[in-house]
Specification:
With 118 residues, the protein is mainly α. Helices cover 75% and strands 0% of the residues. It has five helices and no strands.
């Protein structure tokens, strides 16, 4: 009998809170808010890219600080799921369980890709 392998592709619901960005637009006006949001999205993307490079290179000394930064940026932009998963990744990393961290890291990348694509 042959063995059947099934590739699992987890699909998670990404939660976002549009009120965070809407409040920036109300308080700052369109032009200033667009600049702040675009800058924050750029920082978020750079932070994720830097983290990914560190994880791939197994240079993990700065990971907790960068995950905290990612969490703050995501929360400020109303990216609820991304902020929560970044916190989960920090917790898994702090526990020293690298298997758990690897699983949460994979989830973080999926959530980040979906959050930035929205």
């Amino acid at each position: 009998m042959g063995c059947m392998i099934t590739a699992l592709r987890p699909l998670e619901r990404v939660r976002q809170d549009g009120e965070a960005i809407a409040a920036m637009y109300r308080e700052m006006g369109v032009t200033a808010a667009e600049q702040v949001v675009n800058r924050a999205l750029g920082e978020l993307a750079l932070t994720i890219a830097g983290l990914a490079q560190q994880v791939r290179g197994r240079s993990l000394t700065d990971v907790p600080r960068r995950l905290r930064r990612l969490q703050r940026l995501a929360e400020n932009l109303g990216m609820v799921s991304l902020g929560l998963v970044a916190g989960d990744a920090r917790t898994a990393f702090a526990s020293g369980d690298m298997t758990a961290f690897a699983a949460v890291w994979a989830r973080l990348i999926r959530i980040a890709e979906r959050s930035l694509a929205m």
